[in-house]
Amino acid sequence: MNKQRQLSVSVIIPCYNEEAVIRICLEALSAQIVRPLEIIVVDNNCTDGTLKIAKQFKVKIIKEAKQGLIAARNTGFNVAAGDIIAKLDADSRPRADWVENMISVFESASVQAATGTGNFYDAPCKPLVRIYRNLFAVWLNRLVLGHHMLWGSNLALRNTAWRVVGEECCNLPDIMEDLDLAAHIRLHYGRKSVVYKPKMKVDISGRRAMVSLKRNWLYLKMWPRTLSIHNYERRILLWPAIGFLLVTMALANKYARFYNKEQERMIFSLSQWRSNPFYTRDNP
User: Fold this and answer.
1) Is the pLDDT at 163 greater than 90, yes or no?
2) Sequence ranges of the domains in the chain
3) What are phi and psi of 152, to 5 degrees?
4) pTM
């Protein structure tokens, strides 16, 4: 009997001015136990050194002139040649067995999309923060959606599924594109087709949460808006959760400004506080 062919993986990384973080992401992909078929960096009008760094690695670089995460993601997904399309953010740090574990998840024919977990590598109290993240991002979404979510910095889906849902996915401002993708896959393949697999581990940056209260509000309100578009009836449950998140994130962000990322410890000094200014880039 012939051995079944191993599924191939295309990794997509949308990029806009990510010179500060892209190298570590690409180094982690280069060190995978099972190498991906291809790594595709989508240049979404970078003006810094992102592409210069990317060219030092074995990657494909493609251009998407329309500004925005959804346009860049779609362009990368559309040219992917692998059986599985995986997406990372430029500041993601996949564990060495990420691709290997991903492939094992998709050995089940019923799985059309999957997401995983990981630590916030630049945040204090990493285990606690991961529990906090999983409680709201994974399990609250599971309750509200009736199926698992997809996490944009660590997701994978079958190429065949993308060919079905790609043109249907919403291209709207102020939505969470990863939740939107999960909703469309659920519509075509059922609730159990989207799975959460903790062994797909990718450590991520907490920088997009290190923003002002206003910016966190602008981001979090996209959550119920995305579910409203897809008529999820339990989305009302999100509003008290959003209120709790805004309060706790505001307090946590003040505490986190005393965290020294290089030494991985708290330093309660004014100079340390000033060295961790709020992140000012728009979400997502």
Assistant:
1) yes
2) 9-207
3) -60, -25
4) 0.93
> Shortest CA distance to 13 belongs to which of 73, 85, 102, 96?
73
224-269, pLDDT tens digit by residue?
999 999 999 999 999 999 999 999 989 988 888 899 888 889 999 9
CA within 13 Å, CB half, 118: 26
Rounded to an integer, the average pLDDT of 88-101 is: 97
Dist. CA 113–CA 56, nearest whole Å:
31
Burial of 178: CB neighbours in 10 Å, binned 0-12, 13-18, 19+:
buried
Q: Return the structure tokens found at 244.
A: 């709790």
Domain 9-207: give its CATH superfamily: Spore Coat Polysaccharide Biosynthesis Protein SpsA; Chain A (3.90.550.10)
- CB–CB of 146/193 below 8 Å? no
CB 84 within 8 A of CB 159: yes
**SS3 category, 269:** coil
What are the backbone dihedrals phi and psi of residue 175, each rounded to the nearest 5 degrees, phi first? -130, 160
Q: Is the pLDDT of residue 278 over 80?
A: no
Please give the Cα distance from 172 to 178 (Å, whole number).
Answer: 12
